[in-house]
């Protein structure tokens, strides 16, 4: 057993982080919804899960969790996770994967416990589950209805369509992978919120001292650090379970989503409290991450749904299992 | 990342599981906080030592198996899942021994480690003092120079296992002009020369004691590390206390499994059922987190202040799990001597009382949160 990520996995995550720091600053999240897309294509991110015969790297979800943690750290906008993670699984064998791996096909996906199609207006292809079956839908065959929502950089749409191509792949494996990917983004967003808030608490002075020297502030931030530190391993283990299709996979996926969602919500709530009134304004970039946390926390099933599944999986299962 | 165990790890797990299945005492041992129970636990430690299972991660020459940290974690999982007795030797093998390995002399290791592994000498920790508590640097016990050694004076308190143990370890001020963490020295001393006053705990038993030193002579070879270096050396010990060793995931996994079985057998309303499921999962999270910590330690990294995160997490999880068990049992939980499926074959009530000490000992959780904020996150003091 070796819980360490490989050098290759770490290197890919570092490359994604570097690209995002350079090409996805907060201003780009504010003003646009496809920041860093060409640069991410340039380092091969869109081919991560695409098999080699379609020009991809043929890797697994374990290789994707750290890059998507970086995406969460940057509040990366756009249907990147849907295109990188869900689409290759749903479109297995389709020649269109060549285009997708090259970064020239954007896909919006609505499967599993996701209620709406994120960033559907930016997509070259829509994949929508209906009656348990995923369909590929061309944008010109669909009618999109924008939903009012908290995250202006992750817009949600209702999708109605008449003509779609029934996909052979089931929706469940892709939905599991997406749920874990969303959890990884939540971890990244939580880490960013913690770092930013610590930085603010070190410099912001009140009553003659940096507010970070007050124990009441310290203890809140320590609680966030603990929550994030103990949620992350559940996300990594869930990615492993998805790749291996372990018997515990559904439970592990729910565990990852619930824990990451709660940690990120705590990070967001604490970040806002410690920043005080300035955090409540739109002048600070903080709101971009708050909105992303709230949006992703509800995506692919919120905490309550996954907690109730966990209760069923743990108390209702005939045998309690751990892996390995 | 590969979360599968290797063949060797699986074989080790199977061996430990089989041995424990054949040897764990059927009836729970009496509490180790009684004279009779202490000696019964000593006998169990000796039985483990015969199998080289009392200290699996130590080198073979001192009674161990030279096992890696992952194997040690596997051992712990199997140990607690088997319902085996609590470890009366844990202060020595988990707190003092790592310090002896990193800071002791070869002579000290040969003198003390084999006896510790066989439980011939059981150790008490003597960190706290009446006015110090979690503020360890505020201690005032002192040692004065004597021919070939030192004379120890002062008082220690809340000294775990000291009521019946053979030896103790703790810090004494050797430089009278020093303040706070400077001028402290790490001593090992026989309890035979110390006045020990057992202190009754919440459960009425005597798990800890006060120690009174009235010029106890300790030769130089019972000083661990250089005089004046005690603080630095003790910090290495306390971070292993908070971190990996004192409260391994195995124990929480076993408690969490028992809690789930209890919830199934008693029936749980949806609110309690949610909390039980969550506790089970938190134990799993602690396990996965610890594999990561073990991997970092094996790679030569020091976990240092990050161990404070684990301490807060496991101690609060422990309280939550035992509180839930008592709620599931209702009034029975606070009365019944034989609640089904309790930790170590004993009572959930005992586990509950023990769990309440977790957020207090090894540095209170308030102190741990300060450490996390200042040394992990870098917030100002």
Care to describe what's here?
The complex is a heterodimer of chains A (324) and B (381). Chain A has 324 residues and is of the alpha+beta class. Chain A has a domain at 172-315: Butyryl-CoA Dehydrogenase, subunit A, domain 3. Chain A is built from twelve helices and nine strands. In chain A, the strands form three sheets. Chain A has a four-stranded mixed sheet, covered by helices on one side. A three-stranded antiparallel sheet of chain A has the order 2-6-5, with no helix packed on it. The mean pLDDT of chain A is 96. Chain B has twelve helices and eight strands. In chain B, the strands form two sheets. A four-stranded mixed sheet of chain B has the order 1-4-5-8. Chain B has a four-stranded antiparallel sheet with strand order 2-3-7-6, with no helix packed on it. In chain B, a hairpin with an 8-residue loop joins strand 6 and strand 7 (208-219). Chain B starts with 6 loop residues before the first helix and ends in a 5-residue tail after the last helix. At the A-B interface, helix 7, strand 9, helix 8 and helix 12 of A face helix 7, helix 8, helix 9 and helix 12 of B. Chain B: Belongs to the acyl-CoA dehydrogenase family. Chain B: This is Alkylation response protein AidB-like acyl-CoA dehydrogenase. Chain B: Residues 228-377 form the Acyl-CoA dehydrogenase/oxidase C-terminal domain.
């Amino acid at each position: 057993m070796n819980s360490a990520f490989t050098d290759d996995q770490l290197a890919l995550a570092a490359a994604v982080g570097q690209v995002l720091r350079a090409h996805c600053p907060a201003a780009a999240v504010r003003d646009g919804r496809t920041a860093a897309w060409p640069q991410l294509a340039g380092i091969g991110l869109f081919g991560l899960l695409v098999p080699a015969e379609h020009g991809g790297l043929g890797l697994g979800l374990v290789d994707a969790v750290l890059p998507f943690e970086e995406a969460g750290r940057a509040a990366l906008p756009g249907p990147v996770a849907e295109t990188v993670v869900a689409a290759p699984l749903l479109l297995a064998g389709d020649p269109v994967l060549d285009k997708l791996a090259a970064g020239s096909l954007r896909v919006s996906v609505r499967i599993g416990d996701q209620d709406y199609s994120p960033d559907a207006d930016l997509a070259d292809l829509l994949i929508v589950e209906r009656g348990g079956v995923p369909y590929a839908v061309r944008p010109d065959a669909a009618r999109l209805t924008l939903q009012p929502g908290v995250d202006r950089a992750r817009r949600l749409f209702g999708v109605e369509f008449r003509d779609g191509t029934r996909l052979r792949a089931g929706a469940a494996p892709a939905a599991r992978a997406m749920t874990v990917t969303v959890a990884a983004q939540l971890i990244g967003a939580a880490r960013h919120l913690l770092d930013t808030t610590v930085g603010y608490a070190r410099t912001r002075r009140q009553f003659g001292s940096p507010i970070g020297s007050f124990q009441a502030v310290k203890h809140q931030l320590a609680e966030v650090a603990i929550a994030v530190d103990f949620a992350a391993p559940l996300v990594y283990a869930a990615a492993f379970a998805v790749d291996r299709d372990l018997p515990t996979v559904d439970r592990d996926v729910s565990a990852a989503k619930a824990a990451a969602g709660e940690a990120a919500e705590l990070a967001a709530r604490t970040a806002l409290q410690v920043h005080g009134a300035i955090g409540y304004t739109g002048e600070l970039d903080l709101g971009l991450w708050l909105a992303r946390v709230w949006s992703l926390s509800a995506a692919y099933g919120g905490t309550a749904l996954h907690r109730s599944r966990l209760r069923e999986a743990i108390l209702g299962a005939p045998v309690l299992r751990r892996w390995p | 990342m590969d979360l599968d165990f290797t063949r060797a790890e699986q074989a080790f797990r199977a061996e430990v599981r089989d041995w424990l299945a054949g040897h764990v005492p059927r009836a729970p041992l009496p509490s180790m906080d009684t004279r009779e129970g202490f000696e019964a636990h000593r006998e169990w430690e000796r039985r483990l030592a015969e199998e080289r299972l009392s200290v699996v991660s130590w080198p073979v020459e001192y009674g161990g198996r030279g096992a890696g940290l992952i194997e040690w974690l596997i051992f712990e999982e199997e140990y607690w899942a088997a319902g085996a007795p609590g470890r009366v030797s844990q202060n020595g093998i988990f707190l003092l021994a790592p310090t002896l390995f990193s800071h002791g002399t070869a002579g000290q290791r040969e003198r003390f480690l084999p006896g510790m592994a066989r439980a011939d000498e059981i150790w008490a920790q003597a960190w706290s003092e009446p006015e110090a508590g979690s503020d360890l640097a505020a201690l005032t016990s002192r040692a004065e120079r004597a021919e070939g050694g030192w004379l120890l004076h002062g008082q220690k308190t809340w000294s775990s296992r000291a009521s019946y143990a053979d030896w103790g370890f703790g810090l004494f001020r050797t430089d009278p002009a020093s303040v706070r963490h400077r001028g402290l020295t790490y001593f090992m001393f026989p309890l035979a020369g110390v006045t020990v006053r057992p202190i009754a705990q919440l459960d009425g038993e005597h798990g800890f004691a006060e120690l009174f030193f009235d010029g106890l002579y300790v030769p130089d070879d019972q000083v661990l590390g250089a005089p004046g270096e005690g603080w630095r050396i003790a910090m290495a010990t306390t971070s292993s206390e908070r971190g990996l060793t004192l409260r391994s995931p195995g124990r929480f996994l076993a408690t969490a499994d028992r809690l789930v079985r209890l919830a199934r057998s008693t029936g749980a309303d949806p609110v309690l059922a949610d909390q039980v499921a969550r506790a089970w999962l938190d134990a799993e999270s602690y396990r996965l987190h610890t594999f990561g910590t073990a991997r970092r330690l094996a790679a030569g990294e020091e976990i240092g202040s990050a161990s404070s995160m684990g301490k807060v997490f496991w101690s609060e999880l422990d309280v939550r799990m035992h509180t839930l068990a008592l709620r599931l049992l209702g009034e029975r939980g606070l009365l019944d001597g034989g609640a089904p499926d309790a930790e170590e074959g004993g009572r959930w009530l005992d586990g509950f009382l023990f769990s309440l000490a977790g957020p207090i000992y090894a540095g209170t959780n308030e102190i741990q949160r300060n450490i996390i904020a200042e040394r992990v996150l870098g917030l100002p003091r």
